[in-house]
Design brief:
By secondary structure, this protein is mainly alpha-helical. It is built from six helices and three strands.
Length: 149
């Protein structure tokens, strides 16, 4: 198995944590955190998502997403309205001020992404993306032997 430092998953997790910490720092002036930014970004791409759909995309519990949405709604960055057909489902949408904040916050997050881009030549980035995609494909749908019985 090797030490934790020799494991691919450990390295990927460490980089993910460092990226998240850098994004948190970049977002601090906007008084939003990474999960809140991710919701604003998702709603800019797919307006009208439900809290459940946002929770699945963000890989958080529905309760956590409800809290994130409540905070954003309280700040006037997101509005929720009943779905036109399924009135028990609330659709979330960016407000005008939410869109404006997202544009500024996204520029700050782009600086973090640029730091990563600067680590690689275009060819190295292409290879890294292909390798990460291969890892994702290998893990997608994987079940432990004990669950296959």
């Amino acid at each position: 198995m090797g030490t934790a430092e020799e494991r691919i998953g450990h390295r990927i997790k460490r980089v993910e944590q460092e990226v998240t910490a850098a994004k948190h720092a970049a977002l601090r002036p906007f008084k939003i955190n990474v999960p809140q930014y991710n919701v604003l970004l998702a709603l800019s791409l797919e307006p009208g998502l439900s809290g459940a759909a946002l929770a699945r995309r963000g890989m958080v519990t529905p309760q956590t997403m409800s809290s994130v949405l409540s905070t954003l709604e309280g700040r006037g960055l997101v509005e929720r309205r009943p779905h036109p057909i399924h009135s028990h489902i609330l659709e979330a949408r960016l407000t005008r001020s939410g869109g404006a904040l997202l544009r500024r916050a996204d520029a700050a997050v782009a600086q973090v992404e640029s730091l990563l881009d600067d680590c690689f030549t275009p060819e190295e980035a292409r290879i890294l993306f292909a390798q990460l995609d291969r890892c994702s494909e290998k893990l997608s749908g994987w079940k432990p032997d004990s669950a296959k019985k």
